[in-house]
């Protein structure tokens, strides 16, 4: 029985799947998984699942009273495209939800007199480059540049990065004895687009990458909502999970900042389509531009500088663009969809 416990919010989301699978295999931690939606059948045996919202303070109080967490991975949130459909609701979930988590983590740490490490996935959506020309000229963006997000999601991510910094360093500056022991050790990664073979994202704007891959593998035609030349940095899911685990395990003394860029490869939509067609030559991919979503990705960097993550805690991508497809994405999606069509055949026979 593992003696340590980890809380994962938004557990049924894409990164949640990856993290639960990692911790279940690793066996080092009991996993408490929180999500507003039912957890996937594939994850039920791997964690203790609690259905509920990060806005439900009574539930959070109960969870933090019942379990002693070593790590909190706060993944719950509404993504960039979803957030623009109802910005105030996105703000409530993303900001109030995160403040609730930070606050209950702080209270639990204070009660136990023991620091809790808080991992927060931020995003390239925290950046906002004013024009395409500037995006092309800017090249690799460092963590301090162009912090003018144009989406509610991006604004929320940037603000929560600051709240994490505040909770770690300054919470209740005037509280007596606040310096006796550290309460929260806040660490964050600004993720680029993520492509997973196991799950399909909903409500994001980098979704065209994974959608192209999954549609082709299912033999479905795909209409891409951004221009062919649209370029973003990406990682694949095993790299995203590696990065979160590596950052969570790094010695505090190695870290020179709290928020880090990471990237694996930077490619255009047409390059993704080209790679997909190498494996699925019949794939039908067309382009029908959604001006609102295009505007969002145009404001995000075409590449990011991840030097600090590399030098501080040893971040290193596992794949190149080509090897991510050859060694991870293609074998896994081919297996996945062949299995599901086989299953369908077996069920109906
Ligand atoms: N993948 C996210 C989105 O598209 C960005 O972090 O909203």
Compile the SSE list and pairings:
Layout: E1 4-9, H1 14-26, E2 29-35, E3 48-51, H2 57-66, E4 69-74, H3 80-85, H4 87-112, E5 116-123, H5 132-138, E6 140-141, H6 152-169, E7 184-191, E8 193-195, H7 208-217, E9 222-224, E10 231-236, H8 237-249, E11 259-261, E12 265-268, H9 269-279, E13 285-287, H10 291-299, E14 303-304, H11 307-313, H12 321-348
Parallel strand pairs: 1-2, 1-4, 2-3, 4-5, 5-7, 6-14, 7-11, 8-10, 9-13
Antiparallel strand pairs: 10-12
Helix pairs in contact: 1-8, 2-4, 4-6, 7-9
This protein binds serine.
Number of domains: 1
What is the SS-derived class?
alpha/beta
Bound molecules: serine
In the predicted model, the low-confidence regions spanning at least 5 consecutive residues are 341-349
Task: Tell me what you see in this structure.
This protein is of the alpha/beta class and 349 residues long. The chain has a single domain, classed as NAD(P)-binding Rossmann-like Domain (Rossmann fold). The protein is 45% helix and 19% strand. The protein is built from twelve helices and 14 strands. Strands 3-2-1-4-5-7-11 form a seven-stranded parallel β-sheet, with helices on both faces. Strand 1, helix 1 (14-26) and strand 2 (29-35) form a beta-alpha-beta unit. Helix 1 crosses helix 8, helix 2 runs parallel beside helix 4 and helix 7 (208-217) runs parallel beside helix 9 (269-279). The longest helix has 28 residues, at 321-348. The protein is globular, with a radius of gyration of 20 Å. The N and C termini lie far apart (42 Å). Residues 341-349 have low confidence and may be disordered. The site of serine has 11 residues, from loops. Residues 79-80, 123-125, 153, 191, 193, 204-206 line the site of serine (SER).
